[in-house]
Write a structure and sequence with these properties.
Helices cover 49% and strands 13% of the residues. It is of the alpha/beta class. The chain has one domain: 2-enoyl-CoA Hydratase, Chain A, domain 1 (Alpha-Beta Complex). It has a six-stranded mixed β-sheet with strand order 1-2-3-4-5-8. Strands 6-7 form a two-stranded antiparallel sheet. The chain is globular and about 55 Å long. The N and C termini lie far apart (54 Å).
Length: 252
């Protein structure tokens, strides 16, 4: 296998791939835990498109760096989201990320290596989701900014955990730990912190060995309902999110 050019193309995404075709995509900022920015938001749909068309990828692990999956966001870097033209850019990118995660032609293993209080939906959209005992889940940005959680959280958490739990999590602004996430059916396994990535590689390697057509069509089979809900719910949800952002500016 040759090293793809996209491996070195994105500032907040680190890539590696083993001889079994297991690609690891790791969020980071300067080699440490990621601070999610407008550039990350813009880069991610492009990166996922390149990953999808790379025939050497047979399975993928999505994880964070160190002891954190994602728990920081640079709000101002997203631009003036109270302006329709800027928000439409954000809305389009947000939908593409979620669609492309579900449409990747191979299985994705979500490895929560620590707190996932920013874009936890990326992990919940994986085909198999495991967590470190140090993982926590919640929604930091929307309650902090005072805008609605319409960018996929409302769809994915409801699908995975159920309506009542999704409403509680997204209304309350509180977090749940890894054990509670397992009780809710959000993760399939909770492991000691130093074992979780190794376990993710083990699962991904087993799935990467499956026949190509099986991996591609099983992915479509199992994600059909969730993909339909994303396409239906996220454009509308993000439109409402943009209205609450604009209202904050008006009130200010």
């Amino acid at each position: 296998m040759t090293t793809p050019t996209y491996f070195d193309h994105y500032d907040n995404l680190a890539f590696s791939r083993d001889d079994n075709g297991v690609l690891t995509m790791r969020f980071h900022t300067d080699g440490g835990p990621v601070v999610f920015t407008g550039q990350t938001h813009e880069d991610l749909p492009h990166a996922l498109e390149e990953i999808a068309i790379d025939g050497d990828n047979r399975a993928m692990i999505i994880t964070g760096t160190g002891d954190v999956f994602m728990d920081q966001i640079d709000g101002p870097s997203l631009g003036d989201i109270t302006k329709p033209i800027q928000w439409e850019k954000t809305r389009s990118e947000g939908l593409k990320v979620l669609q492309r995660l579900l449409e990747l032609p191979f299985p994705v293993i979500g490895v929560a290596n620590g707190p996932a209080t920013v874009h936890s939906e990326y992990l919940l959209l994986s085909d198999i989701h495991i967590a470190s005992e140090r993982a926590i889940y919640g929604d930091l940005p929307h309650p902090s900014f005072g805008i609605t959680a319409g960018d996929g959280l409302q769809v994915v958490w409801e699908e995975v955990a159920g309506t009542a739990r999704a409403k509680w999590l997204l209304w309350s602004g509180e977090n749940i730990d890894a054990a509670t996430a397992k009780e809710w059916g959000v993760v399939i396994e909770v492991l000691p912190h130093d074992q979780v990535l190794t376990r993710g590689v083990e699962i991904a390697t087993k799935l990467a060995a499956k026949p190509t057509l099986y991996r591609r069509l099983q992915k479509q089979t199992l994600n059909q309902r969730l993909l339909r809900r994303i396409i239906e719910g996220v454009p509308y949800g993000m439109a409402l999110e943009g209205l609450t952002a604009a209202d904050l500016a008006y009130q200010g």
